[in-house]
Amino acid sequence: MSETLYLVLGILIIGLGIYDLLYTTFAPRGAGPVSNSLSSFLWRLFLGASNLLKTRKAFRGAGIVIIMSTILSWLLLLWAGYTLLYLSDAKAVVDSTTEVPADSWDRIYFTGYTLSTLGNGDFKGGTQTWRILTAFISFTGLVLITTAITYMVPILSATTERRSLSIDIAAIGDSPQQMLLNSWNGEDFKSLEQHLSGLAQPVAKQGQLHLAYPLLHYFYHADRSVALLLNLVALDEALTILLLYVPKEKRPSDQSLVPVRHAITTFLESLTAITPTPEDPDKPHLDLKQLKEAGVPLQLQEEKLPEEVAKRRKLLLAMLQYLGWEWEEVSKPKFNTDLDLRSLR
């Protein structure tokens, strides 16, 4: 009875490990059930540590820890599953010299070094069927190692691209209102078009990369200038102000503004799978004070924002908080000004 149980459990665990590995690495959207649950759990631990210690230093290395833990989970699932298979038959593993059946610990050891493709040779499959299965397990280990390497490379590359894109957006302005004031010539915001025209494609690409590689969500950057979500929220706020309060003839053309807005939407959709449901319906507040003080003519709408805009901004708030940011930081300086001219501060 126990041998049958070992066989069934082994097959189920192996199936889960292979499914999770293949879905996470090859599916165009999302992660497997194990990878998704593990990464979410570990991130909440980092988030809790950051809140407890009152420092963002707790987030350092979170992305690497999560991705390495994910790879380790695949290895452990396959190791456990194949070990259970070997335990299901007394003759599955024998000593290479004496032909004496291996005990449980030896079978765990045999499975481990077979998966690692070491092939020490002190144990072997007890029958022809088990020897063939051992060869297959060794091949599975090779595939696991290769897949892990090929999965990590594009994630690290996408992280570099994300930092570059974030700096491009942050350079437009430190805050949503500052982004607009930097483009205000006294008559309109048309000069903002030169910034928007090159942003739609890279923002959309980052959204698709986050769908293909969900672990990208957990690579945290404490520097505001390279924190993509923080700067995208600032840009999205600026676009919301333009769409709601600036006459159409004074804002950038729809050909430059709308594609960027849609690209940000696709990026936000890539985060919805990991973001908790927004709780506070009264936040965040849409600030127009600097624009009014600068004399920018605005078409003041009703105090209550349109439902779809309010929903979008609550989601943005939830995303920021889940990734360790607060809404107030959207409007804080993004660059270190100690190394630049005072006129540029």
UniProtKB/TrEMBL annotation:
Protein's UniProt name: Ion channel
InterPro entries, sorted: K_chnl_dom
Pfam family, one: Ion_trans_2
Keyword match Transmembrane: yes
Highest taxon of source: Bacteria
Assigned keywords, A-Z: Membrane, Transmembrane, Transmembrane helix
Residues spanning the membrane: 5-22, 65-87, 132-153
Domain Potassium channel: 75-155
